[in-house]
Amino acid sequence: MAVNFPPLFSRLGLDRHPRVFAQPGEGRVLSDNPATGEVIAYVSLDTPETYEREVAGAAEAFTKWRSVPAPVRGQVVRAIGEAFRTHKRDLGELVSLEVGKIRAEGAGEIQEIVDIAEFAVGLSRQLPGQVFPSERAKHRLMEQWLPLGPVGVISAFNFPAAVWAWNAMLAGICGDTVIWKPSLLAPLTALACNAIAEKAAADLGHPGVFRLVMGEDPIIGERLVADKRVPLISATGSCRMGRRVGQAVAARLGRCLLELGGNNAVIVHEDADQELALRAVVFGAVGTAGQRCTTTRRIFVHEKIAERFVERLTAAYRSTLGRMGDPLKDGTLVGPLVSRMAVEQFQDAVKAARAQGGQVLVGGEAAGGKGYFVQPTLIRAPRDNRLPIASHETFAPILYVFTYADIDQAIAMQNSVDQGLSSAIFTDSIRVSERFLNPDGSGSDCGLANVNCGTSGAEIGGAFGGEKDTGGGRESGSDSWKAYMRRQTSAINFGGGFELAQGITFE
Ligand code: UN1
Prior knowledge:
The strands form six sheets. This protein has a seven-stranded mixed beta sheet, sandwiched between helices. Helix 3 packs antiparallel against helix 6. The protein folds into two domains: 269 residues, Aldehyde Dehydrogenase, Chain A, domain 1; 196 residues, 3-Layer(aba) Sandwich (Aldehyde Dehydrogenase, Chain A, domain 2). It has 507 residues and is α/β, with parallel strands linked by helices. Helices cover 36% and strands 20% of the residues. The structure holds 2-aminohexanedioic acid. 2-aminohexanedioic acid (UN1) binds next to loops. 2-aminohexanedioic acid binds next to loops.
């Protein structure tokens, strides 16, 4: 049953990693290649004892790391970013092997790590607090941001490296240590990435900042979420998982940063640049085989252009059918889903859509044979736009097509789902785009609202996350770093007189 390791294992040090095995064994999880169903390697999981060692180690390392000046922490993160740049090709390929992303997207995922590391380096010279005018003479009122503690990062299979980095690079410059619990569908990517970060930091004299715990929820996940030594849990995954994590962390009055499901829509208005909209919709819906939390799952097309646009979309979808296959082969646009279970969920959703009157325009089938491939699938909603299955997030390349008559109706339909992650409109009209972004909040209710850009493929510079069942958290750019620090407000009396706020006298 022993497997042969792929050549990139030696370049990434995975062939010598103490947790990586060629044979199955007790306490080991297998990592398979979703394009072939073949085993890549076996990885040993944590036990309650090794979990305890890691968390105690993270708490201990925190007491040292927080005292390292932030710009020096930034230099450590800079070295980590450089190491990822060096290993970009191999790590991107590992992501492809383990979760089935096409080569360009695997590499893009590692680029996202390099980008957030660079962002964090700049931030390490800022972390700005504020000074406020005091109402009292000879007083100063100010706030500063302090390191928080060990941060628990729970990541999903679909961005098995970048989402950890959004958290870890920011936490790192903020003075926090990191305890990463990766998806068991991508343990090798996690081992390789964490080892790179840990080695780069240790080489500069800061060992123990970046840590990993791996295991099933009852043994590792629930322990981490309930652990009082971990003041922040940042979790990415399904709404169902987020609800459990959110409740458990709230029960101990800990802090949560949740980035959960999306049911993202694109509105294509009558005056849209249709070529642009078409390309963005196909990438958004078919890219990553529909397994991004930002994947385009619904489109609303203005009725005046609907027939022609849907015709063009149908043709584009047909052309993707011939581009399914080995994610590492040039020319492949659609890789596999991550698991057999994901294929079954795809099949269930297509079945439900048909039963509800949806018309399958393209795709609808699992490919069968080796690997977990399904066809990019385009489903037209019935004329009355009633298609309840479209309110559910199915992690697969299924796009539901609706039509609308006026923009208010399109925005209402877009906002009618439980999730609120990403949204987009294609229009050349400033009135329509501003209606979508209306500062009174009556436009898109999502955390991301793009104009003439698709729902997926956000840059790291902005804050990433969404509202409603998406969980409300914000990661990566803008001021997301504040989640990884604690705020302290100070009133400082430099005059010596005893003066109380609110004009109170207490003689
Ligand atoms: C995710 O799917 O969890 O905006 C993250 C995007 C990527 C990140 C997606 N930059 O599609």
